[in-house]
């Protein structure tokens, strides 16, 4: 597998971020299309995050029914100059407008099936990879991000990953008097052309690249 809080976001970036529907909800669902951009040279620590394209896997539940899931293998390395507490958090947003938390309520059998499929003795379950991440490539850790198969036909989706940087920004939400805390977030974009709404086996997955956003 490949291997301080900031000052207030500039007025232009804040307007771009908060202009409807950026931080609220539209039609009952969150909109994640517009974000402020992190600093090019972050003043905070950042972990190296290498990942592979997601792939589907079928696992039988306790009733014997086949359920489909997606998983994204990754490796995280700490070359930041100090030991870090690694607490990853991931969510998936689809072009159908659905936003779901990853690694939540996933049956243990799913990770066991993934570990068997990958045959990687260093692979850790999502709950086990949380903890102190020591410095250097010898202490890199490998895990996966897992989520259920989509209910609708999806042609593009984004996996958001936080916990890879200490960079944050606080902004005031116009008209509310409240402060919003944003975190540097990796946005991993993928295309899934074709129609595999029921069975994703053989689904093409195109890596559309990574952006870092404040979210």
Top keywords for this entry?
single chain; mainly beta; four-stranded antiparallel β-sheet; 215 residues; disordered N terminus; 14 strands
Topology summary:
Elements: H1 11-18, E1 25-26, E2 29-30, E3 48-51, E4 55-60, E5 66-77, E6 84-86, E7 89-94, E8 99-101, H2 108-118, E9 131-133, E10 141-148, E11 156-162, E12 168-173, E13 178-191, E14 206-214
Antiparallel strand pairs: 1-2, 3-5, 4-5, 5-10, 6-9, 7-8, 7-11, 11-13, 12-13, 13-14
Oligomer: single chain
Q: Which ranges are low-confidence, i.e. pLDDT below 50, for 5 or more consecutive residues?
A: 1-32
Number of helices: 2
SSE order, as H and E? HEEEEEEEEHEEEEEE
Describe the structure.
The chain is built from 2 helices and 14 strands; from the N terminus they run αββββββββαββββββ. The chain is mainly beta and 215 residues long. The strands form 4 sheets. Strands 7, 8, 11, 12, 13 and 14 form a 6-stranded antiparallel beta sheet that branches. Strands 3, 4, 5 and 10 form a 4-stranded antiparallel beta sheet that branches. Strand 1 (25-26) and strand 2 (29-30) form a beta hairpin. The longest helix is centred in the middle third of the chain and has 11 residues, at 108-118. It is globular.
């Amino acid at each position: 597998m490949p291997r301080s809080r900031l000052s207030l976001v500039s007025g232009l970036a804040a307007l771009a971020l908060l202009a409807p529907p950026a931080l609220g909800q539209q039609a009952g669902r969150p909109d994640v299309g517009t974000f402020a951009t992190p600093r090019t040279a972050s003043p905070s620590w950042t972990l190296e995050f290498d990942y592979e394209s997601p792939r589907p896997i079928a696992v039988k539940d306790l009733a014997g029914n086949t359920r489909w899931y997606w998983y994204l293998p990754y490796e995280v390395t700490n070359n930041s100059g100090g030991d870090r507490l690694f607490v990853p958090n991931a969510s998936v947003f689809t072009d159908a407008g659905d936003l779901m938390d990853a690694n939540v309520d996933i049956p243990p059998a799913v990770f066991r099936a993934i570990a068997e499929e990958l045959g990687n003795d260093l692979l850790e379950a999502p709950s086990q990879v949380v903890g102190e991440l020591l410095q250097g490539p010898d202490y890199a850790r490998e895990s996966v991000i897992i989520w259920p198969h989509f209910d609708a036909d999806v042609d593009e989706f984004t996996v958001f990953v936080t916990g890879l940087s200490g960079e944050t920004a606080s902004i005031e939400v116009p008209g509310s008097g409240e402060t919003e805390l944003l975190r540097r977030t990796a946005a991993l974009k993928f295309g899934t052309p074709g129609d595999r709404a029921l069975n994703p086996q053989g689904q093409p997955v195109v890596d559309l690249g990574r952006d870092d956003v404040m979210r």
